[in-house]
Write a structure and sequence with these properties.
Blueprint: H1 21-37, H2 46-52, H3 57-72, H4 78-82, H5 87-104, H6 111-140, H7 146-174, H8 178-198, H9 215-238, H10 244-264, H11 282-310, H12 315-318, H13 322-341, H14 347-368, H15 379-403, H16 406-450, H17 459-495, H18 508-533
Length: 534
């Protein structure tokens, strides 16, 4: 962004010579948009899938979480695949995988197979996304300023998600949920064609063989986190430990986690290395991301209940709120870029301001909860939520990069992904859903006992009024608890110690040199061990 005028223009060499330099950047942006749109499963189709398939809403949420976990588990493999395959090959494979998954998903009815397709969809989505961003990095910021780069990344990723959610809702309303998958197939096939026409097999560095990929470890960690999400997602439905399935899930989760930890200490290249847990302030980052997910859960549960249950908005009407959330994210990306690169603000204050915006969203919602407002009153709170969401993601991810050894950085992102795109969201939704059910029972009993049923008003009309009033009181109380929790989180941020940044983000060539050195060291150790055995 601001770096563009200070450096020589960076050419994207993966394209054929006849492709104009001015078009190469925008081709990557188009590829990014396609990958952000394409999934194995779409959150916006939940209600339709539940209605047409023999699945529950919890099943649909589980499919969505499987997409996010598949996306997270790509991180430890990112540079190993990057330096093994050319950009053209990787983009083609990612787009092909997404096209196949979207083509078969509407015709599959097996729960385990659907879960596997969603996991693979998330993996291929980030595969293509990372390939695009890793090539755009020197173009976006030739000085490798990570604050600039992450501002751009989260603007594109979260911005595209909000915009394409709106697009998906339009398609569902006018056509049907299966047409979303057809649209995704068409976009992926178009990407494959354009990639193979405009790009060439170009390597800026020699090909590095795949090494140290712990496939079994990846499967074990995936089972652990998916089982943990399963327990939290279905616990309320099955009565927690009263049901055998939840007890089996808890036992499986604990056994697999123990096996993953033991494996971490007994093989040379585990999927998650033990050195990852020694990164400074990792626990603090996990706690802050979990706190953010709990606060964001109020939007997924309380706001949706207000717009649907009280205001009576249809899905296509409520989709208008995706635009202020998108604008809030865009404003946050620009804000983070400016205060970090121009003003040099400390990440502690950037995190505090961004989290304050999320807390302020909950404060605003308490003030506007009424059945008589129009949807325009929700724009400002939702704008604040989008602003804070993107800002916290940028600040904490920049902080993680600055303090993690590059050897462990992508494994740290995977661990953070367990919370920020995995079980944290499920925990947040479960907390507020359970709390809302409890509050509704209390307020229905209190308001119902005080109601006068002897008047001339119809019983059905009076019951609706009681239900609406109970829901409003419940929402106000829970938003109040969210504000209290958010204030505690803000105090914790103020009391935390955020050190100055110290690790620069390595260039692609430096990254190659680091991984190459690790690979050669590993080979030398293996040869010495074989010699000693002989």
């Amino acid at each position: 962004m601001s770096d563009w005028g200070n450096q020589e223009p960076v050419r994207l060499m993966n394209f054929r010579e006849w492709v104009p330099d001015s078009a190469r950047f925008w081709l990557y942006i188009c590829f990014l948009a396609v990958f952000q749109f394409s999934n194995g499963f779409y959150f916006t189709t939940m209600a339709q899938v539940v209605g047409e398939r023999n699945v529950t809403m919890n099943d649909a949420h589980m499919f969505g979480q499987a997409v996010l976990i598949g996306l997270t588990f790509y991180f430890p493999l990112a540079f190993r695949l990057k330096f093994r395959f050319t950009n053209r090959t990787s983009l083609t494979v990612a787009a092909t995988g997404l096209a196949l998954i979207n083509a078969v998903f509407p015709f599959v009815h097996s729960y385990p197979l659907l879960l596997l397709l969603c996991y693979a969809g998330g993996f291929f989505r980030l595969y293509g996304t990372f390939e695009c961003f890793s090539n755009l990095l020197p173009k976006i910021t030739p000085t490798y300023n990570y604050a600039v780069f992450l501002s751009f990344v989260f603007f594109v990723v979260l911005g595209c998600i909000h915009v394409f959610d709106w697009v998906a809702i339009q398609f569902i309303y006018y056509y049907g949920w299966t047409y979303i998958h057809l649209l995704s197939v068409a976009l992926c096939l178009s990407t494959i064609v354009v990639v193979n026409i405009t790009m060439r097999h170009f390597r800026p560095m020699p090909r590095m063989p795949l090494y140290g990929i712990d496939g079994l470890g990846m499967v074990m960690w995936s089972i652990f986190i998916l089982t943990a999400i399963y327990v939290v997602q279905y616990g309320e439905q099955y009565g927690w430990t009263a049901d055998r399935r939840i007890r089996i899930g808890i036992g499986t989760c604990m056994i697999v986690l123990a096996a993953c930890i033991l494996r971490m200490f007994h093989i040379r290249h585990p999927f998650i290395d033990k050195g990852t847990f020694s990164c400074p302030n990792l626990l603090n980052l996990l706690v802050l991301f979990l706190g953010l997910d709990i606060l964001l859960g109020t939007q997924n549960v309380l706001q949706n209940m207000f717009t649907g249950g009280i205001m009576g908005y249809s899905q296509i009407t409520a989709a208008q709120l995706k635009w202020p959330e998108f604008l809030g994210g865009a404003a946050s990306a620009l804000f983070c870029w400016y205060v970090r690169t121009k003003l040099g603000w400390h990440l502690k204050w950037l995190t505090f301001i961004s989290m304050s915006a999320v807390v302020l969203y909950n404060v605003c919602m308490i003030g506007i909860l009424s059945p008589d407002i129009n949807i325009g009153k929700l724009w400002w709170p939702v704008f604040l939520l989008g602003f804070g969401h993107v800002g916290v993601f940028i600040a904490l991810t920049v902080y993680a990069q600055a303090y993690c050894n590059f050897k462990y950085y992508f494994q740290v992102l995977c661990l953070l992904g367990f919370i920020r795109t995995g079980i944290g969201d499920t925990i947040g939704v479960s907390i507020w859903s359970h709390a809302l059910d409890g509050c509704m029972r209390v307020y229905l009993a209190a308001i119902g006992s005080a109601a006068n049923f002897s008047g001339g008003q119809a019983f059905g009309s009076l019951a609706d009024m009681i239900s609406t009033e109970a829901l409003l009181c419940s929402l106000r109380e829970l938003y109040g608890w969210a504000v209290i929790f958010g204030v505690v989180l803000l105090i914790a941020i103020l009391c935390s110690h955020f050190e100055r940044l110290r690790n620069p983000y390595p260039t692609l060539r430096q990254s190659y040199a680091i991984l190459s050195r690790l690979w050669q060291t590993s080979n030398n150790k293996t040869e010495k061990e074989q010699e000693n055995k002989e």
